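Suppose a colleague, Dr. K., hands you the sequence of a protein chain of 315 amino acids and asks what its three-dimensional shape might be. Before reaching for any lab equipment, you can write down a predicted structure in token form. Begin with the sequence itself:
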Amino acid sequence: MKISILDKDTLGADIDLSPLRALGEVAEYGITAPDEVALRIADTDVVVINKVKLNRQNLSAASALKLICVAATGYDNIDTEYCRTRGIALCNVPGYSTDSVAQLTVAMALSLATHLPEYREYVHSGEYSASGVANRLVPVYHDIAAMTWGVVGGGGIGTRVAEIARAMGCHVMVCRRKKEGDFPLADIDAICRECDIISLHVPLSDETRGLISRERIAAMKKNAIVINVARGAVTDEAALAEAVAEGRLGGLGVDVYSREPFEESHPFYSIRHLNNVCLTPHMAWGSAESRKRCVSEMAQNIAAYFCGEQRNRIV
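The predicted structure, expressed as tokens, is then:
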């Protein structure tokens, strides 16, 4: 069996790939440019990817390809319909990063709500030592327990974030499809109008693309904090950047972008220096424990496929 890993660098230099290497001959590529994909998968049985896009154009010549394993839960970078027509199987890895993503979500919320970057800079710059005053209380911050936290998406990650928010004393509202659950349900417009913290945990689909629109951003509280750890395209990124720059939002935390890495022309580039903006490089999923689970799960997915078993199959 030949396995090709197309973007190994996105899994981290410290990751142990021995579970995959034990299954067959493994070709490992740090990164793969779009025009290199077709050649690198032409004669492979299994493709392992994280962010690489697989579509009709680059998959059409992969005559030996039987299985695609995505090192993620989401798979919007893969043309699933073409895979069905070709009989190419696709497996994802659900649930592996729940704790890791929830941790970053809450860390962003706490940092932005407490104005931690400003207070840290006050001390690190030497201003505190020179002030002669024992404490500083500007900018003003508020108890997170006095806030309403709106969670958009009621899957594993959204539910974990809601549980943590409730444990910190927040009133929690959840926007989700399923009626079951331990938290009050609200529609997306109510979340945008009423919540002090809004965190996004939905997959990218035709239904969720542009979910946080310019109009919904305009309806948010002036001090609202928006956190996106879902997919960049579920928000109007330009509208978010404008709202922050114009002082119409209290804070913005983002780990995912419509283009990754985002370039200098992206709306967020011009606001990246602001104290109430926390932009991270799509790392929420990537704790050491999460990545170890991810590789283990992919290895099990591959082994199951070649044993004729259905395991984490999307196609």
